Amino acid sequence: MEETWSCIPNLLIWMIMERLQFIDSLCLSAVCKHWLNAFHNFPKEETASYCNFPWLMITKSKDHRGSEREFSSPWTKTKFTVDFPEFAKTFVLNSKNGWVLLLTCSDCCEQVPRVFLLNPFTRVKLQMPRRPLLFGVRLSAISMLEGTPNCVALVITYRYIAIAHPGVDAWKIFTIPSALLYLRIVHIFFVDHYLYLMDIYGRAVLRFNTIDFTMTNLFMGKTYPFGKEEKDTYFLQCNKEIIRVSSNGLIPYGRFSRYGFTEAAWSFHKYSISKATGEALDDDEIRGKSWFLSNCGAKFSSVAEGTPVEKVHFLSKFKKKACHRLFSCNLNSPGKDAHSYFGNLSRKNTVWINMG
């Protein structure tokens, strides 16, 4: 059997990656499946690694109709601009492992709105099926398999669940039980092959099996003592667990301030499906992680492991000034001296791009 470039041992690929910038390493991972596997198994150093820290994607034109996007990493002070036709007339629905889920704008396109996946770092595009029912997409989630998107879920007008794999011909559409419509579904997450729908109180009310397409009602009309609705609450995933991050009410929009942010009290809870309640995270579960929150765009939240200092990074949009600001707070040393303020990022649309 003739050997090819795809047969290079992982150790040699890792030696090459040690000499590359992060963007070049991502391009390396797009060569073939073997190189992609080597990229994901690259040994991480004990020191801070920013490879899995999210990037900021900023719309360069006046609105979403343009095709230019700027990618910025506040952690490495790296910036680059791309001009991809795929970005024109699209909105960001979600992102995961460097992939962006985009929806074409119905007001700008003569055709039916379409959803597709794009990796802006490698420019690999995965088509999703076309379907007229894509009007009114409210929530979305992406499941991954070996670093590649495996399944996409959409909640449409809070009444339907649409499921599809990249490359298939049509979406599978399922109706959310009428008994759950009044609960206000505000988050959806993939955990293995299950899709969980969460209500505004942070309770999992519906579990959807993406293999046999069965639904399990987890609510059943019961009232769980999970707590009241909290406006300053954000949900994310960490090691296949659903995490709730809450503040003391100083975060959103006009009430947000750089000094109030550093004095905010943060709490972290993991959701127990069986108990339908949240359990406080231990210090060991919080240690070595950075938490990324946002009140704008796709309201993306994420966590990155392998960091020496625990921090909360918050991307905020100020409605009055129409600008985006990024704040950072050291969880171990709360107070005014423990924060970083990155200033006004842009008056244009800015969102997190999840890399982990």
UniProtKB/TrEMBL annotation:
Question: Coiled coil: which residue ranges?
Answer: none
Per the database record, which ranges form the KIB1-4 beta-propeller domain? 77-247
**Domain F-box, chain residue ranges per copy:** 5-43
InterPro entries given for it? F-box-like_dom_sf (IPR036047), F-box_dom (IPR001810), KIB1-4_b-propeller (IPR005174)
**A Pfam family assignment:** F-box
Q: Which PANTHER family match?
A: F-BOX/KELCH-REPEAT PROTEIN-RELATED
* Record-given protein name: F-box domain-containing protein
Give the species: Rhododendron simsii (Sims's rhododendron)
Source organism phylogeny: Eukaryota, Viridiplantae, Streptophyta, Embryophyta, Tracheophyta
